[in-house]
Design goal:
Structural class: alpha/beta
Radius of gyration: 23 Å
Oligomer: single chain
Shape: globular
Strand order of the largest sheet: 2-6-5-7-8-9-10-4
Length: 502
């Protein structure tokens, strides 16, 4: 991905200077485990970057169109780990030495609950309308249930309306459709980094829309209160930088709870980000796909739909799907809520290519309708299992002395492995990632999330205990081997000091 040269960036404000001792102490108290982040590099990190997804593009597939070659190149360059995993997938009985996947953000903890509910007799219904073309927005009975479901669980200030709901086959389709209908070719969305990196493909492959990265870093400086904190000021700086480069920004993408950090934006923060977008007439896409996966009781999650007043309702578009909160990524169900009927109609037109079968729509309606089961059976048990898995992995990371962001939402822990890199480069980060893969555990590396600090990784904990235990054992083996190599390479005098009890 292309990022501008630091000399071309506007001078950073004083609030982005080196962290004070007080700032460092604050960062230790706000979600950091084991140890504080390192002293900041004297060279300030970049404030923003303009994404160019095909900066390194090359292809010899002459039988394809240029677009086809780009699409194939994306697949070839971005899917290495997952192709390797699928060829050697761990199975406790059939392939116990296979790869453990702690890289894909899926909830694999509640299959027993879901399989029981989805096999009930009320789910098994067929009628002629379910086998025919539906309204492309989705069957009315489903959109009515989605509106009721979101009204209840988002705690909306007023009942949401079925006519503002569009149903598609998953979040990827939602991003693709919104990018295509909101932006011209070459225009861009602002997005804070690190972020769920597949969004790059979602907005580019169909719509040729780019991303402008709002770079966040781990050092707590100025007015920040936590690592990787997003502020309206940082959005302003990134927007100014993009405009100075001639890049037209049409919107802002927010993920709440955030992937991969697990952060939850407060109502005040959401209001500030929405006000920023209104000032600049930007659309805001709010991805709330993890909204029911907040498992820490002390945390208060607020959907953007719960705000009493949206600064710009016609430019605020909310996404949700069952893939994460219900552990049903294979069902491919996603929904858009927007009060802008032009946007809703345009996205609905693309549902010709991204719609759901009538049978799946019926099942989803029945599931979302069963609020008693969701609230009293599924969600309490799902949260308990997520918390237990999160606790286990957190304790393992503490035992290894690995710093990480401790949050209570989502399926992931953002871990700091910078001390295991010989040099602070993304090449070294990739080498470490390959060592994990060679040792049969798949993680997600920070570069995939456009993190600008090499050495961060995302670990998924929402898996069964056996796979988690084995995955953490394999992570430990890699890190211990690297620590041993580092000790062996120490000069004799330093090695002697290093080996003394401390």
């Amino acid at each position: 991905m292309f990022t501008p040269d630091p000399k071309d960036l506007p001078a950073p404000p004083t609030c982005l200077g080196s962290a004070s001792t007080q700032d460092m102490a604050s960062s230790c108290q706000d979600g950091w485990e084991e140890e504080c982040p390192r002293e900041p590099d004297p060279k300030r990190l970049k404030l923003y970057g303009v994404g160019n997804p095909i900066a390194m593009f090359s292809s010899d597939s002459s039988c394809l169109s240029f677009r086809g070659r780009v699409i194939k190149w994306f697949w070839d360059s971005a899917e290495e780990g997952y192709r390797t995993f699928h060829m050697d997938e761990y199975d406790e009985d059939k392939n116990p030495s296979g790869i453990i996947n702690l890289g894909t953000s899926e909830n694999k903890l509640c299959f027993d609950l879901l399989s029981h509910r989805l096999s009930q007799s009320d789910m098994l219904w067929i009628e002629p309308s379910l086998l025919q073309y539906p309204d492309w927005r989705g069957h009315l009975f489903l959109r009515e249930e989605v509106a009721k479901f979101l009204s209840f669980y988002c705690k909306s200030s007023a009942p949401l309306k079925p006519e503002n709901v569009v149903v598609l086959n998953g979040g990827a389709s939602l991003f693709s459709a919104l990018a295509t209908v909101l932006c011209e070719v070459g225009e861009a969305f602002l997005i804070p980094t690190p972020y769920y990196g597949a969004i790059t493909q979602h907005v580019y492959l169909y719509g040729s829309v780019r991303l402008v990265y709002v770079y966040l870093d781990s050092e707590v400086t100025g007015q920040d209160t936590r690592p990787f904190q997003l502020t309206a000021e940082k959005l302003e700086l990134a927007l100014q930088g993009a405009n100075a480069e001639g890049v037209k920004v049409k919107g802002l993408i927010l993920i709440n709870p955030q992937n991969p950090l697990g952060d939850i934006y407060s109502p005040r923060e959401l209001q500030e980000f929405l006000e920023f977008a209104k000032r600049h007439e930007l659309h805001v896409i709010v991805d709330e796909v993890y909204m029911l996966s907040v498992f820490e009781e002390s945390l208060e999650y607020r959907s953007v739909l719960s705000l009493e007043r949206l600064p710009d309702p016609q430019r605020t578009h909310v996404m949700w799907a069952t893939s994460k909160d219900f552990g049903m990524s294979g069902m491919r169900f996603g929904t858009l809520y927007t009060e802008n009927q032009h946007v809703a109609t345009s996205v609905a037109s693309l549902c010709r290519y991204h719609g759901l079968s009538g049978l799946v729509q019926y099942q989803m309606a029945r599931l979302l309708q069963d609020r008693d089961w969701i609230s009293h059976v599924y969600l309490p048990e799902n949260h308990a299992r997520l918390k237990a898995a999160h606790t286990y992995v957190s304790e393992e990371l503490k035992a290894l002395g690995i710093p990480f962001l401790s949050r209570g939402a989502g399926f992931f822990i953002w871990i700091d492995l910078r001390k295991y890199l010989h040099k602070a480069t993304f090449e070294e980060e990739m080498l470490l990632w390959r060592q994990f893969l060679d040792n049969k555990v798949l993680l997600s590396l920070g570069k995939a999330f456009e993190c600008q600090e090499p050495g961060w990784f995302r670990v998924i904990f929402s898996d069964k205990a056996q796979r988690l235990r084995l995955g953490m054992q394999r992570i430990r083996q890699v890190l211990e081997s690297k620590s041993q190599v580092s000790e062996d390479n120490l000069p004799c005098q330093n090695k002697k000091l290093h080996d003394q009890p401390r």
